[in-house]
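W.,

You were right to be curious about this one. When I first looked at the sequence I had no strong expectations either way, so I just let the prediction run and decided to look at it fresh. Below is the sequence, 245 residues in total, followed by the output.
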Amino acid sequence: MMPQPFNGLQTRHVLSVALVTALLLVLCSRSDVTAWAPVAQAASITTGEPALDGPLAVSASETVGATAAARTEARQRPLFNLQQLRAIWVDAFNPGIKTPREVDQLIERMHAARVNAIFAQVRKRGDAYFNRSIEPRADDLNEAPGNYDPLAYLIEKAHAATPPIEVHAWLNALPVAKASEPPTDTLHVYSAHGTNAPGADNWLSKNVYGALASDNLYFLDPGHPQADQYTSDVIVNLVKNYDVD
């Protein structure tokens, strides 16, 4: 059987392989090309040198025969100088910042984990885990002293830590109440603008079926101008009164 001639695709494939091979031969023949190898990021057990904070690169010859001083110098030449955000989220539905002891334990654990930022939930459903708020204090802060301000104490401890830890405030913007357990506090936004509020004073959103409750929750309507302004006021008030990051 006669061999089949190359088609266009086969020809391009052969040319590509030949080009790559030629390029590799040229690179290997150059004396100024250095082979690169990553440096291990674990701390040295024998020298006690600190662990690396980022990806580094040194030449293969240095890696093989380097002294401790050379390795230390190599670690000071990062390939990329990127600041890492190592953060955790602390939700308000579980222990985390509800007492001074919880905050102290949180900061200790974050340092052990080398975390440098905390995203703390300070609003669940129209309530506040910070005292200087236009909304009522969260119900589950009853075990804490009356003057205890969770967000303020968290910021104080986190910023004073060594190294300091950033604190970012997390707020649930639209959920304001559980349908099965509506809030009774007269200062709560639901009391004035919930299911019993008439006309435009009702700030609640409806789902696709026309019901006010979805998954046992009431939500503020982001399309309602007054509800939108109220939500903005809550956030701006927090930013003005707390040194959040």
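Here's what jumped out at me. The two ends are 76 Å apart (CA to CA). And, maybe more interesting for your project: The first helix runs from residue 8 to 29.

Coffee later to discuss?

I.
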